[in-house]
């Protein structure tokens, strides 16, 4: 991903000039915030007149927003709100973060509108992809990217002239993104978005959480409440988890190859709670396993198992943790501490 340019360091430019191509989204958000000063209006007019490309990009966003008139403007205002009035020396990284949040929001809006047929523009490629429990699937894309879908996953995909958008409705997907700096690949996972221009990364989504793990390259992850939007940049072997209504957790150092071992038909547990193991196994089991008692879920477990034989994972548990397993007539499984009666 190309370095972030600080327009304040350009000769002959005012220190607070907005020059990055993504600034069309930032200007649009600001001009619709209801709190625009006369100085900002003049700066906006000058920016728009400075380059035909600026005017074209802004006009495109304006047409998109007109088509999305049913989307509350308060959502955009919340993103653009600036009660503390950042100083003129606003850093390029912060400026970039605000712009990325706007880009992600409008990208997701555009994808939703196109999916619903509200916009006439046709994507170059569109697909609805899904896998059943226990199924994995690899999908090559026309832009040279590759998707790997894990078990019980559903995605909506749109490749357009100026963006690549994937909505992860549930499950997990690994992306090998073909480089294209002019067309970011944005993954919307509900509580946040991940954007990349050419990298390999894994995105997992649960009911109220998302997890992003980078194998190579870099990925920007935007999440959090609209009025406290957080943008983090992840490098290789880094991971972040974001949950609905919360600020994202700290960036963690991980073994990305272990996280994405499911691509090779394996799942790796390295001293993790049994509750997490059962949660992961239930993604592959035809019938769910459950724990008898909360204390049972606190046992720590390590091991490498085949996702193609999830029942073998269940059978192996008594050999790696002080538990026993009972299979129910309906196919379900109960896992309890060895000292307890099933």
TrEMBL record:
<dbReference type="Pfam" id="PF04773">
    <property type="entry name" value="FecR"/>
</dbReference>
<feature type="domain" description="FecR N-terminal">
    <location>
        <begin position="23"/>
        <end position="64"/>
    </location>
</feature>
<dbReference type="InterPro" id="IPR012373">
    <property type="entry name" value="Ferrdict_sens_TM"/>
</dbReference>
<dbReference type="GO" id="GO:0016989">
    <property type="term" value="F:sigma factor antagonist activity"/>
</dbReference>
<feature type="region of interest" description="Disordered">
    <location>
        <begin position="1"/>
        <end position="20"/>
    </location>
</feature>
<dbReference type="InterPro" id="IPR032623">
    <property type="entry name" value="FecR_N"/>
</dbReference>
<feature type="domain" description="FecR protein">
    <location>
        <begin position="128"/>
        <end position="220"/>
    </location>
</feature>
<dbReference type="Pfam" id="PF16220">
    <property type="entry name" value="DUF4880"/>
</dbReference>
<dbReference type="InterPro" id="IPR006860">
    <property type="entry name" value="FecR"/>
</dbReference>
<protein>
    <recommendedName>
        <fullName>Fec operon regulator FecR</fullName>
    </recommendedName>
</protein>
């Amino acid at each position: 991903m190309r370095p972030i340019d600080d327009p304040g360091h350009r000769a002959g430019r005012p220190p607070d000039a907005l020059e990055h191509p993504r600034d069309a989204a930032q200007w649009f958000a600001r001009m619709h915030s209801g709190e625009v000063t006369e100085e900002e209006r003049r700066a906006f007019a000058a920016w728009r007149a400075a380059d035909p490309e600026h005017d074209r990009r802004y006009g495109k966003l304006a047409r998109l927003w007109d088509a999305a008139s049913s989307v509350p403007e308060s959502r955009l205002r919340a993103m653009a709100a600036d009660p503390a009035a950042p100083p003129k020396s606003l850093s390029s990284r912060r400026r970039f973060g605000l712009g990325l949040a706007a880009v992600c929001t409008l990208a997701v809006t555009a994808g939703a509108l196109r999916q619903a047929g509200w916009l006439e523009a046709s994507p170059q490629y569109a697909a609805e992809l899904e896998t059943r429990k226990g199924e994995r699937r690899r999908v090559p894309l026309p832009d040279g990217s590759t998707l790997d879908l894990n078990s019980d996953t559903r995605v909506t995909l749109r490749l357009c002239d100026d963006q690549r958008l994937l909505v992860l409705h549930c499950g997990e997907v690994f992306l090998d993104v073909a480089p294209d700096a002019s067309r970011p690949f944005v993954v919307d996972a509900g509580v946040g978005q991940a954007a990349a221009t050419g990298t390999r990364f894994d995105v997992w989504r649960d009911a109220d959480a998302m997890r992003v793990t980078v194998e190579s390259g870099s990925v920007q992850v935007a999440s959090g409440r609209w009025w406290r939007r957080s943008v983090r940049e992840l490098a290789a072997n880094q991971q972040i988890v974001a949950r609905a209504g919360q600020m994202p957790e700290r960036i963690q150092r991980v073994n990305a190859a272990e996280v994405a071992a499911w691509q090779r038909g394996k799942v790796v547990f390295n001293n993790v709670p049994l509750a997490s193991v059962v949660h992961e196994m239930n993604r592959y089991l035809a019938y769910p396993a459950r724990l008898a008692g909360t204390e049972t879920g606190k046992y720590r477990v390590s091991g490498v198992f085949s996702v193609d034989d999830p029942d073998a994972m269940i059978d192996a548990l008594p050999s790696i943790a002080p538990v026993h397993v009972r299979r129910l007539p309906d196919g379900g499984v109960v896992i309890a501490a060895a000292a307890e009666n099933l």
